[in-house]
TrEMBL record:
The keyword Transmembrane applies. Keywords: Membrane, Transmembrane, Transmembrane helix. Residues 124-152 are annotated as: Disordered. It comes from Haptolina ericina. It comes from the Eukaryota. This is Uncharacterized protein. The keyword Transmembrane helix applies. The chain crosses the membrane at residues 14-33, 45-66, 78-97.
Length: 152
């Protein structure tokens, strides 16, 4: 199974997968920053170098390594890198976009008065499991008790 494959990857490979993206990003960022590129260009270079052309690595591995245990061992490193790479790109993007996110949020708050309005449906929605992993939704109309005004 996939979980077993992930569990078979040793700690050194996970560490290499974890550090490859940040080190590559830093190695792209520093020269671009040192060359006094514009901020967006520096960030673009950093992300592109941090990506380390993983598609090329996949293709090379398929061509160089014959099928078997050695090829599987090589691919475990690529698997660990791929997992951490996605996390890294999200973290970097959020960090670099934090000012834009904050200003967008401030503009939204000033427009809406800082309140979120939630509209409520007049029907009850219940969910029950069907045993197959899917929830079956049932909608029932709310009626009022004529004497107390409470839902039945």
């Amino acid at each position: 199974s996939n979980w077993q494959l992930l569990g078979d990857i040793d700690e050194k490979t996970w560490l290499a997968g974890l550090l490859l993206g940040p080190v590559g990003t830093l190695l792209g960022f520093l020269p671009a920053w040192g060359a006094r590129l514009k901020s967006k260009q520096v960030k673009t270079v950093a992300i592109e170098v941090g990506e380390v052309n993983i598609g090329v690595a996949y293709a090379m591995m398929l061509l160089v390594w014959p099928e078997g245990a050695k090829r599987d061992a090589v691919f475990t490193g690529i698997i660990s890198y791929t997992i951490f790479n996605q996390v890294l790109v999200w973290v970097i993007t959020i960090y670099w976009a934090r000012d834009n996110i904050a200003s967008s949020y401030a503009a939204w708050r000033s427009k809406h008065g800082g309140r979120i309005q939630i509209t409520r449906l007049k029907s009850n929605v219940r969910s029950r499991s069907t045993g197959s992993g899917h929830a079956e939704m049932k909608r029932s109309a709310t009626t009022s008790d004529p004497e107390g005004g409470r839902p039945c």
